[in-house]
Design goal:
Helix content: 40-55%
CATH superfamily: Glutaredoxin
Number of helices: 7
CATH class: Alpha Beta
Structural class: alpha/beta
Number of domains: 1
CATH topology: Glutaredoxin
Strand order of the largest sheet: 5-4-3-6-7
Order of helices and strands: HHEEHEHEHEHEEH
Shape: globular
Number of strands: 7
Strand content: 15-25%
Largest sheet: 5 strands, mixed
CATH architecture: 3-Layer(aba) Sandwich
Length: 168
C-alpha cells in the first residue's frame, strides 16, 4: 500500500490502538471468574468458573435493594429451568446481608446457584456498570457480553442464543 506522509502520520496511532485492543489481556475478566466467593447461606467457597464447569454461563449480579433485580429474577429462573443445565446460571448477591438475600431468593423461587459479593469487589472486577448486570460467559470462560439493566424472559433467551449459541 502506498501512503503519503500525512496518511502514515494519521494511520500510526490508529494501528497502535488496534494492536493494543487486539492484544489486551482479559486478566480482570479471568480474575472475576476465578475469584473465590462464598456460596450464599453456607460456609462453602467456590468460583464462578468452578460452578460453570466448562459450560456457558449467565452470571447475574443482583441485590435485595434493587427493584429491577427482583423483577427479573422469575425470568432468570424460568430460562434456567428450561435450559436444564445446558447453560449454568449463577446469581451474585451484591452488598447485602446473606440472611436478607436468602429470604428474597426463597420468595422469588430462585433455584440456580447463588454466591455472595458482600463488598462489591467481584462486581467491580467484572466491570459491572449498573444494577442488575448480567454477564454472558463462554464455556472457555470469556465474558462475551455485558448487559446492564433488567431483562425480560424473551430478551434473556435472545441474548443467550446470540452470545452463547444456545437456543433458549
Amino acid at each position: 500500500m502506498n501512503m503519503n506522509r500525512a496518511q502514515r502520520t494519521l494511520a500510526a496511532p490508529a494501528m497502535a490502538l488496534l494492536v493494543a485492543v487486539a492484544c489486551a489481556s482479559p486478566a480482570s475478566v479471568d480474575a472475576a471468574l476465578t475469584t473465590s466467593v462464598a456460596v450464599l447461606g453456607s460456609d462453602e467457597t467456590t468460583t464462578i468458573a468452578e460452578l460453570a464447569d466448562g459450560r456457558p454461563a449467565v452470571v447475574n449480579f443482583w441485590a435485595t435493594w434493587c427493584e429491577f433485580c427482583i423483577d427479573e429474577m422469575p425470568a432468570l429462573e424460568a430460562v434456567w429451568v428450561d435450559l436444564d443445565g445446558a447453560v449454568t446460571f449463577v446469581g451474585v448477591d451484591r452488598e447485602d446481608r446473606a440472611e436478607d438475600a436468602l429470604v428474597l431468593a426463597a420468595e422469588t423461587g430462585v433455584t440456580y446457584p447463588l454466591v455472595e459479593d458482600p463488598d462489591g469487589s467481584l462486581f467491580r472486577q467484572a466491570r459491572g456498570l449498573g444494577m442488575p448486570t448480567t454477564l454472558f460467559v463462554t464455556g472457555a470462560g470469556v465474558i462475551v457480553h455485558r448487559h446492564s439493566g433488567p431483562l425480560t424472559e424473551g430478551q434473556l433467551r435472545d441474548l443467550i442464543e446470540a452470545h452463547l449459541g444456545v437456543t433458549a
